[in-house]
Amino acid sequence: MNMRTLSPIDRLIDELDHSLRTLYGTPYTTARPDPAEGFEEAQLSDAERALAGDLLRVDHAGEVSAQGLYRGQALTARDAQTRAQMAQSALEENDHLQWCEARLDALGTHKSLLGPFWYWGSYGIGACAGLLGDRWSLGFIDETEQQVVRHLSDHLDRLPAEDHKSRAVLEQMREDETHHAHKARAAGGATLPWPARKLMHAVSRVMTTAASRI
Q1: 131: how many CB neighbours lie within 10 A of its CB?
Q2: CA distance 69 to 126
Q3: What is the pTM of this model?
Q4: Residue-wise pLDDT tens digits, 68-114
Q5: Are 160 and 52 in contact (CB under 8 A)?
Q6: 123 exposure class (CB count in 10 Å sphere: 0-12, 13-18, 19+)
């Protein structure tokens, strides 16, 4: 059977569909079980609940950004295998997206209202990274995921000790992000220059602050 070649309009519709699923609908996932399912909901104080909600809101915004990044990078990737690797990682990131959203609902708080900005801003950054070539694009993934791992470790340190559900989610996310970084490096990702790494860190700080408040 002949495979249909997608037109530019088809691709645009596909990208819009993916963004809407990410931001407002039900994204495609690997169907892995939610790590939080094995734990009872903790009795948190109002302050602890607010803190956990703020942390998970930032983490959810990070997963929205991850979808934009991976889609943008896949759009401009040269190699089919690189695109396939990005697609698999993005699918696993969608697991994180659903897990974080479930925790936000349970904690009685909301997602960041800046979701479209996180998604499409990251999409543009990802597409630009892809234009530099697959080696640099994979290096960008490696550095991004390393920074995310450090960020999740900080959140795990700050999370209320009794919130075992949120902790289980963040621990699995950290494990997955570490794996994504290793895959990108093993696939030939280049080490980004120091100024690029510092700029990425600064942008991440701005996003973290904004997402926790809005």
Answers
A1: 15
A2: 4
A3: 0.91
A4: 999 899 888 888 888 888 888 888 889 999 999 999 999 999 999 99
A5: yes
A6: buried
